[in-house]
Amino acid sequence: MGLARMAFVKKHWPAAEKIYAAVADQHAGTDVAAEAIYWRAVCQYKATNDHTVLGPAAHELSQQYPGDEWTLKSEPWAH
């Protein structure tokens, strides 16, 4: 997560997205995976300015991590 955050802060969106995706895959079912899914979507949005990438992430979070704080943060994206 630290490496992804460093890439994010440097605005290296594709690199950060790739790292967040790897964290989400490698740590599925954990709180850190939910956070990684959230930030992965933010990176996708930042790279493209396409807000439609946020809705699927909100749906993924609500399905896999109901009630998680990152799911709650993504709720506005679902609408």
Task: State the main characteristics.
globular; single chain; about 80 residues; about 70% helix; mainly alpha
What does this structure look like?
It is built from 5 helices and no strands. By secondary structure, it is an all-alpha fold. The protein has one domain (2-78). 34% of the residues are buried.
List the helices and strands and how they pair.
Layout: H1 2-9, H2 13-26, H3 31-48, H4 54-64, H5 69-74
Helix pairs in contact: 1-2, 2-3, 3-4
Summarize the structure.
Helix content is 72%, strand content 0%. With 79 residues, it is mainly α.
Order of helices and strands: HHHHH
Mean pLDDT: 97
As a whole number of angstroms, the C-alpha radius of gyration is: 12 Å
Through-space gap between termini? 28 Å
Main β-sheet, in a few words? none
* Overall number of domains: 1
The geometry reads as globular
Care to count the β-strands? 0
Strand content: under 5%
Secondary structure category: mainly alpha
Assembly status: single chain
Question: Helical percent range?
Answer: over 70%
Low-confidence stretches: none
What is the overall number of helices?
5
